[in-house]
């Protein structure tokens, strides 16, 4: 899950939830299982974006992750 364009004041909440900062692409990211994606999206929409944006879900296979 990628928290692209997340508000700056949400950084502590993202860090405490296990997100990592990508300094090159400048967004917060976290690897999650497909079964967790709906709950994580709901948390991001309510606790991070609060109606001003939306997270990006980019599926990554195990083969892609371990290249």
Write the layout of secondary structure elements.
Layout: E1 2-3, H1 11-16, E2 20-22, E3 27-29, H2 37-49, H3 62-65
Antiparallel strand pairs: 1-3, 2-3
Distance between the amino and carboxyl termini: 19 Å
Number of strands: 3
Strand order of the largest sheet: 1-3-2
Radius of gyration: 12 Å
- Tell me what portion of residues adopts beta-strand conformation: 5-15%
Largest beta-sheet details: 3 strands, antiparallel
Mean pLDDT: 89
How much helical structure, as a percent, in the residues? 25-40%
Low-pLDDT ranges: none
The backbone outline, from C-alpha atoms, is globular
Structural class, judged by helices and strands? alpha+beta
Descriptive report:
It is a single chain. This protein has 67 residues and is of the alpha+beta class. It has one domain (2-65). 34% of the residues lie in helices and 12% in strands. The protein has three helices and three strands. The protein has helices at 11-16, 37-49, 62-65; strands at 2-3, 20-22, 27-29. A three-stranded antiparallel β-sheet has the order 1-3-2. Strand 2 and strand 3 (27-29) form a beta hairpin. The longest helix has 13 residues, at 37-49. The protein is globular and about 35 Å long. It starts with a strand and ends with a helix. The relative contact order is 0.25. The mean pLDDT is 89.
């Amino acid at each position: 899950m990628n928290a692209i364009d997340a508000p700056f004041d949400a950084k502590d909440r993202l860090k405490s939830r296990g997100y990592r900062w990508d300094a090159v692409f400048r967004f917060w990211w976290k690897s999650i299982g497909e079964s967790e994606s709906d709950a994580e999206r709901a948390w991001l929409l309510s606790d991070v974006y609060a109606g001003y944006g939306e997270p990006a879900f980019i599926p990554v296979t195990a083969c892609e992750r371990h290249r």
